[in-house]
Amino acid sequence: MIDVRQSVRYAIVIALVATAALASACASSGAARPRPFPLPAGTPNPEPAPPTPAVPPRATLPREQALVATALSFQGTPYRNGGSDPTGFDCSGFTQWVFAQYGIALPREAAQQFEVGEKVKEDALKPGDLVFFRTESRGPSHVGIFVADDQFVHAPSSRGVVRVEFVSSPYWSRRFLGARRVPLQHESEVAATH
Questions:
Q1: Among 26, 154, 186, 194, which one carries the catalytic annotation?
Q2: If 91 and its partner were Cys, which of 26, 133, 165, 184 is the partner (CB 3.0–4.6 Å)?
């Protein structure tokens, strides 16, 4: 005979484990559930898919500005835990994918990306610098790309889409850990290495 109370306890434990797994996602706030929340297979999505953004031609802009323009072109792309392509990004998947478009291989996790490149002080940030924040633990758990004028672009989960925010906003300034500058090769250097 099945004990109903034991079945209920088992269901609660499963729900708590699932909640803890979602909470470990790269998040911009206490909200651990990406929005729009993934729907069961076969359920029509009430929200239209974002259009595929146009990536600006690399040769028309300095490389740092081209990288920022590429990152900004993905505004509105949905957050997806573990996502690392234009169908959906998490924070480090977003930075990894954008830098890969310019021949730079970043590690997959925010904490690993924090070890790449040279340290940059907050008052010396330049477009294309990686900015890191502490959202879940003592170390870096969130990353974005500095745009200019105190703004950065990132893939947070609280509102579900890639967006731009201010580094000095109350939420982010309290959590700012540091920044890294990853040198971008010039087109001729990239061509010479391939």
A1: 154
A2: 26
| 162 CA to centre of own chain | 8
Domain that holds residue 90: 4-37+56-193
Structural domain total, the chain: 1
186 is catalytic: no
The answer as to whether 113 is a domain residue is yes
CA 51, CA 85: separation in Å to the nearest integer? 14
Is 154 marked active-site?
yes
Q: Please state the pTM of the whole predicted model.
A: 0.69
| Annotation marks residue 142 as catalytic | yes
CB atoms within 10 A of CB 162: 27
Distance CA 191, CA 189 (A): 5
Catalytic residue among 26, 91, 186, 194: 91
141-192, pLDDT tens digit by residue?
Answer: 999 999 999 999 999 986 789 999 999 999 999 999 999 999 987 554 443 3
